[in-house]
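Study this protein:
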Amino acid sequence: MSAVPGPLGTAPRLPSPLLEAVDERFARHGVRLLLKRDDLIHPDLVGNKWRKLTPNLAAAAGRTLVTFGGAYSNHLRATAAAGRLLGLPTLGVVRGQELAGRPLNPSLARCAADGMRLRFVDRSTYRRKTEPETLAEILRATGTEDAYVVPEGGSNALAVRGCRTLGEELRGHGVDVAALACGTGGTLAGLAAGLAPDQRALGIPVLKGGFLGAETESLQSAAFGGRRGTWSLDDRFTFGGYARTTPGLDAFAEDFGQRHGLPVERLYVAKMLYGLVALTEEDAFPRGTTVAAVITGAPFPAAGSAPQAASR
C-alpha cells in the first residue's frame, strides 16, 4: 500500500484480524463463518476507509483534499480525521443546501471539529458534481482550484488498488467466498482483484438501482485495465434503499452483535450479514464452504447507539 506522509497517531493494524464466528444458522448448513475485522484497522480511519484513503493521501502531497458526501457521510468523517492527523486542509462538499445555516448534526460536527471546511450545495448541483464544469465551479467558489479531488465514497483507481490488499490478506486461510456490503463498488473491485483464483467475492449492495455491476467493472478497468477476479452481486438486501433500515434489520443487528460481541453498523454491515444468513438458509453455499464476512465499519457515534444515516 502507498505510504502516507506524516504521522497518523496510531499505527494501522494490518493485516486486520480474521476471526471465526460460531453460529448455528451457518453451521447447520455446513457453512463456516469468519469475520474479517477491517473495523479494527485504525480508530479514526476505520475499515475500508484506511485502504481507500491511504494511497489518495499520499497522492495529495500536502494539497487541500476536496471530497463529497451526504449529511452523515462515513467518508467525510474519515477524510476529515485524516486531515487532522496529517495537518492536511480538507473541504467537504455536502449534499443538501437546505442544511446550510442549521446546527450541524453529530457527523458533520465531527468533521468540523477535525478541521474540515464544509460547503453545502443543492441536490441538483450535487448530482452533477462529476461534470467538469460543475466541479470547476465548486472549486472556484471555494478557492480550491489546486486541490486534490477524491470522489464520493473515495472510490477511484488508487483506492481500488489500495483495497487489493484486502483480498490478498484472505489468501491461504481456507476462505472460499469473501462477502462485503457495497456502496460505490471500489472495495469490491479491489477485493476481487486480490483474491486467489479459487476464491470469489460477493457484494451486497446497499443502494437500489442495479448500477453497481457496471460501476465495479469500470473501476477495475481504471485500476487494472480490465475485469479482475471472480465476483458477483446480490441486490435483494437494500432494505428500501440507501440510508434506510427497518425494525427487523435493527433487531437482527442487535442479536448478531450479542451473539458475537460485535458492534454492528446498520446501513452497510448489518445488510451484508443479514444477506449472508438468508443466502445460507437458501443453501446458496455448498456444504463445506467457508465464508469470510468483511466488517468494513463501526457504528457512529458509538457502539450500541441508534444508527445514523451514513453516506458512501
In short: The first strand starts at residue 18 and ends at 20. The chain has two domains: 18-44+155-294, 48-154. Residues 1-6, 302-312 have pLDDT under 50 and may be disordered.
